[in-house]
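>> received
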Amino acid sequence: MSNFFELTNVDKQRIEEAKNEIVLIADQLFVLIGKRFKDTTELERQVLATFCFGMVNTIVLIKELNQIQTHAVIISCLTSVFKYSEDQAEDFTQELINSTDEEYHPVMFSIIRRGISGYQQYVNNQKDQLKSNILEVLAIVNKK
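>> returned
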């Protein structure tokens, strides 16, 4: 009898592909907006991470990952790209998941939605639109 939580090689490959894809995209977002990670504020990092969470939601749907696998992809992005500790990444991931309910956090919900559209802009090589999308979100949040 196989272990319920045991991953097949195909599962492992899909998870790694999703992790690699979001890390690559997130790194490119910094280039696109013309800022290095070290030059961003904590608020900007949170906004970009929330935007990336929206992108992750699309990636995991395409790769047909389950919730546990998706959680691993998000944690990996938050720790490797946004330099959060494991504990911070766990807490932030839960906040992001909760924010998929618009009533819980309307602003984060909107940023997640923008990230979903951003993924389509990314795969369609619409870099100018993607850049505008991100900069608009950052401008709105920075005004508050």
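>> The helical segments are 9-33, 42-63, 67-80, 86-98, 106-123, 127-143.
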